[in-house]
Write a structure and sequence with these properties.
about 425 residues; alpha/beta; Rossmann fold; 2 domains; 7-stranded mixed β-sheet; 13 helices; about 30% helix; globular; disordered C terminus; binds nicotinamide-adenine-dinucleotide
Length: about 425
């Protein structure tokens, strides 16, 4: 729906300043959808340069190029990393009450950024908290960026591995395909399976959720069966829940043989909002052949492998453990295109009956708002900050049962 009843709302896109960030929060491909909905866009000069989108590609689609102050002097600011992930960012002084800020915040890992934005009076939406539901899928930055990361993780592994991925039959003999083991078959894991298969590797995968088996097999990989009670039949909001220490220990024990037989292990296991479970111990890494490679996608959440150091490659007896960070930033053109589309869809939620309404009536907005009216409004973030919980909203009262209540359709037929 387009805005018809209000003056045009302006969206600002500042240049990302976080170290190593190459993406931009809106790509030119997302602009037509936003402008048709009734928004104008101001992009800070050069904001898209590192993502492969020069200013002219934005102006060609109706955006205006301005200064950083102009990008922040808008109604809605969109960022890949809100405040560049820095609670002492100079940009905080550019925010004002009632302004809307949308982007990735890592609200549980960096609650102090939420607190700092709340203090400005701006309303902050953390896109990581968009629920994993069918309706919200088109706004889910974790999914869109994890798909890119899973692909790039395999290319990183293939580059580091002193072997080929595919089977090769030549006059000089036959080369066996690489064996790749993917731990965690969520969005990143499934993208890693598909990419490894395309490169010709033999792929095995494991996930604590039994439901993942079908997806793993449909991509041509073998699901590794571990006789382990995981209790993950129904995770919360599309996510797994944390295993007990005992279950993790058992998992390590049962997985050691598969890890030892693999040329490449790609770990993507996560439980939303928690530090990553340590699944591969140093001992298990030592069991792999020298030259093997581990790509730890969970490096920034503490890592799925004991020796992982985020942003570094650690050598354990000739096995390289690569703690990758910001892989989407290594493919900024498409990562920004997907991120921008997620943002555009989220902005679309704020157009209600032809008016701009950043209120939080919508379920997706309700779950993702973390700061509003000068306060931190998400209880998990409040807990992380040591603040008192806010009272949870009352569940809607059940409709009164009366004699003249309408007869349910099924019963009427
Ligand atoms: P996801 O929630 O879709 O998938 C995670 C999977 O891990 C789930 O299927 C879950 O069931 C599984 N899991 C949880 N505990 C497990 C355990 N003990 N053993 C096996 N499987 C387990 O998450 P995602 O979006 O695919 O992201 C995966 C990881 O990759 C996260 O840590 C995320 O932060 C990270 N990531 C990293 C980058 C990067 O550039 N480094 C980019 C995107 C995502």
């Amino acid at each position: 729906m387009a805005m018809t009843d209000t003056p045009r709302i302006v969206v600002g896109v500042p240049r990302e300043h976080r170290a190593g960030e190459t993406r931009v929060a809106l790509s030119p491909t997302a602009l037509p959808q936003i402008t048709q909905a009734g928004f104008d866009v101001v992009i800070e000069a050069g904001a898209g340069d590192r993502a492969g989108y020069p200013d002219a590609t934005f102006t060609a689609r109706g955006a205006r190029v301005g200064t950083r102050d102009e990008a922040f002097g808008t109604d809605v600011v969109v960022q890949v990393n809100v405040m560049d992930a820095d609670a002492s960012s100079a940009d905080l002084s550019r925010l004002r009450p009632g302004q809307v800020v949308i982007g990735a915040v890592a609200p549980f890992a960096r609650p102090e950024v939420v607190k700092a934005v709340a203090a400005t009076g701006a309303t902050l939406f953390a896109l990581e908290l968009v629920p994993r539901t069918t309706r919200a899928q088109s706004m889910d930055i974790l999914s869109s960026q994890a798909a890119v990361a899973g692909y790039k993780a395999v290319l990183t592994a293939a580059n580091a591995l002193p072997k080929m991925f595919p089977l090769l039959t030549t006059a000089a003999g036959t080369i066996a395909p690489a064996k790749v083991f993917i731990v965690g078959a969520g969005v990143a894991g499934l993208a890693a399976i598909a990419t490894s298969r395309r490169l010709g590797a033999l792929v095995e995968a494991y996930d604590v959720r039994p439901a993942a088996r079908e997806e793993v097999e449909s991509l041509g990989a073998r699901f590794v069966e571990l006789p382990l009670e995981t209790g993950q039949e129904a995770g919360s909001g599309g996510y797994a829940t944390q295993l007990s220490e005992e279950a993790i220990r058992k998992q390590q024990e049962l997985m050691a043989t598969t890890v030892a037989a693999s040329d490449v292990v790609i770990t993507t296991a996560q439980v939303q909002g928690s530090t990553a479970p340590v699944i591969i111990t140093t001992e298990m890494v030592r069991g792999m052949a020298p030259g093997s490679v581990i790509i730890d996608l969970a490096a920034e959440q503490g890592g799925n492998c004991e020796p992982t150091v985020a942003g570094e490659t650690v050598d354990v007896d000739g096995v390289r453990v690569i703690g990758v960070v910001n892989l989407p930033g290594a493919i900024p053109v498409h990562a920004s295109q997907l991120f921008g589309k997620n943002v555009a869809n989220f902005l679309g939620l704020m157009v209600v009956d032809g008016r701009f309404d950043p209120g939080v009536d919508d379920a997706v907005m309700k779950e993702s708002v973390v700061a509003s009216g000068g306060d931190v409004v998400n209880n998990r973030v409040r807990e992380a900050l040591g603040l008192e919980r806010l009272p949870e909203p009352e569940p809607p009262a059940p409709a009164p049962v009366t004699d003249d209540a309408p007869v349910p359709e099924e019963a009427a037929t």
